[in-house]
Amino acid sequence: MSCRFIIILCLVLTTLSCSKNEDPDVLFPQQTVLIYMAADNNLYRSAQTDIEEILKSEVPQNNHLLIYLDVPEWYGDGYAQLFEVKSGNLIQVKQYGRQNSASGEVLQSVISDVTAMFPAEKYGLILWSHGTSWLPENKYDELKEGKLRSFGKDGNREMNLIELSESISIKFEYIIFDACLMGGIEVFYQLRNKANTIIASPTEILVAGFPYDKIVPFLFYPNLNYIRIAQEYMNYYKNKTGILQSASISVVNTGQLEPLAKLLRTILNENSIILPDKMSVQKYETREQAIFYDLEDYLSQAIQNQSAITAFKQQISKTVIYRDFTPYFLGTLAIEKSCGISVYVSPSTDDELDEQYKQLDWYKDTGLLCQ
């Protein structure tokens, strides 16, 4: 067991010190932020590092920052715990015992505990773990040599997108995904009624994840600056060198997602689709046989009606209020264009997967299944 992690866990026994006085001229709204760390997997050391970053930040008075932490049984004591960040310390507020953090039932219960114990005017949620967009449990392993997942990983359990959506029982001010490939239209649209703003990456996220010592202060500003949070993320990776200079991020206004779907439905009803050559469409994965491509680029090549595409691009610009990306990802994937949102493109070899896709709200409201 890591000595550094022992130190972190010992902080729960630390008594509260006097809190730093806040500037009386600054009025912070009461907000509770939950970081849900499903780390009972190979990301457990990253959880340790991110917690150390989080503890460097000061939480304003009358606000609360909570961390739900579940790590492998052999790495800690095996018990999932809920902590509050106070004056640079972790204060345990609840011990759950052994749980499967990749369960929607567990996520729902944690959200209920947080809202009951720390009521606030506004709530924020950071979902921290593995991720593979909308894909069903364990499906990505069949499509790619690797160990990426849908959201969360705990043993053999994963949380698919519909389960994730149903487990979120309140509407958050924002949801931030510190997980790979969650910047897909399927994810944004399924969660459109679960948050006003969603921040996610259409590509993978390197193991370092978000720079929490940089972004946590902005989570508690009187007027939440989502673009600044995304910029801090991008600046962190743009200042890296070599293959570590790899990142993409998007900030989505969920209120514009239904107008986007409605417009696309109309366009599809009035225009035929010509399947584009996938090699010419911007993809978001390093592997050759990708399934996640740029939504705008795909449709721009698939639909020949330029006025329709212009209208679609205009609506995309209203939906994605900020996007940015590095020129390359891991040195091999060139990112030359990005609307900030990926879309699933069927490999045309898995009818069962396509049928599961049709259960998603995005398909139900648009009828779009890219091939």
Overview of this protein structure:
It is a single chain. With 371 residues, this protein is an alpha/beta fold. The protein has 2 domains: 3-13 and 28-254, 3-Layer(aba) Sandwich (Rossmann fold), CATH 3.40.50; 258-366, no CATH class. The chain is built from 13 helices and 15 strands. A 9-stranded mixed beta sheet has the order 4-3-2-1-5-8-9-10-12, with helices on both faces. The chain has a two-stranded antiparallel sheet with strand order 6-7. The chain has a two-stranded antiparallel sheet with strand order 11-15. Helix 2 links the parallel strand 1 and strand 2 (64-70). It is globular and about 60 Å long. 43% of the residues are buried. Mean pLDDT is 87; it is low at 1-25 and 140-149.
SSE blueprint and pairings:
Blueprint lengths: L2 H8 L20 E8 L5 H11 L9 E7 L9 E7 L2 E9 L6 H14 L4 E7 L10 H5 L7 E4 L2 E3 L1 H7 L4 E7 L6 H6 L4 E6 L11 H8 L6 H13 L9 E6 L3 H14 L21 E3 H8 L3 H14 E6 L2 E2 L3 E2 L7 E3 L6 H7 L3 H6 L5
Parallel strand pairs: 1-2, 1-5, 5-8, 8-9
Antiparallel strand pairs: 2-3, 3-4, 6-7, 9-10, 10-12, 11-15, 13-14
